[in-house]
Amino acid sequence: MSDATGVIHDIGYQRYTGRRLGRRQVFGALYGHGLRTVFGLGRSAKAKIFPWLVVAVVTVVAAGLTAVRSQLGQVVLTYAQFADAMSWLVIFFVAVAAPELVSRDLRSGVLPLYFSRPLPRGDYALAKLAALMTALWLLLGGPQLVMFLGAAFTTSRGMRGVWDELLDLLPGLLYAGLWAVVFASIGLLVASLTGKRAFAAGGIVAVFLMTTPVVGVLSIMPSRTVNELAFLASPSSLVSGVGTWALGDLLTQGQEGGIPIGGFGPVYAVVAVLLVAACVSLLLLRYRKVAAR
Hints:
Blueprint (H helix, E strand, L loop, with lengths): L22 H16 L6 H28 L6 H7 L1 H22 L2 H4 L6 H34 L3 H34 L5 H13 L2 H7 L5 H6 L5 H13 L1 H4 L12 H28 L1
Helix pairs in contact: 1-6, 2-6, 3-7, 4-6, 4-7, 4-8, 6-7, 6-13, 7-8, 7-11, 7-13, 11-13
């Protein structure tokens, strides 16, 4: 019987001697990857169709409004009103983007890799949320910049006209940010509940659209107070209510007073803050439980 012999083969593995990146860099990488995922960058051509179709639609609408204004000298929609008018597209954009950000990872079972050090469990959810918020803000804010540039180059009042346009643009961008924060918080929370993208997308659309009839029912109740608070029942009308209170003429210009919220504007603002805080807290709790499995 011969003695067993062993041979050690050197196949070139070496220890990593470079600089080890920390939590901030990992968070930034997740955020950047999430933002690219939303717009289909680095993915197949099929994944780019819907997000860039939506981008094309809002950009064409903005360009059309700019052209009409330059010809007629009339503001068809203010910057804030543009965000309101395009909000229905944001619902479907979120319904597609949010499941791509989180449902795929839940289904493939790669979360234990993400939650390994140095990435804390909550950073994964916050990075994905920040990416979705940024994408939605760009979706609504980018076309507003197109409208601003068109107005700035065609104004007959020189730098004074450009300054006035800028003062109108900034509230519009902030309003777009409000839409982005509220819709991203709700959408990502719903998407995090299931690994099936179709179910997640359907759940997101249901949350936004099925609450609208509730607003309709409450708004025809005999109590005026109930009528003015009815718009709290839907995320879309909640955001519009905050905009009506905070922006005033910038949102109601050319309209009949906007959403009738009476003197409950501060209530709408507080509810919006609480809604976002609740969604983010539940999202973090959700991923704490996922990581503990």
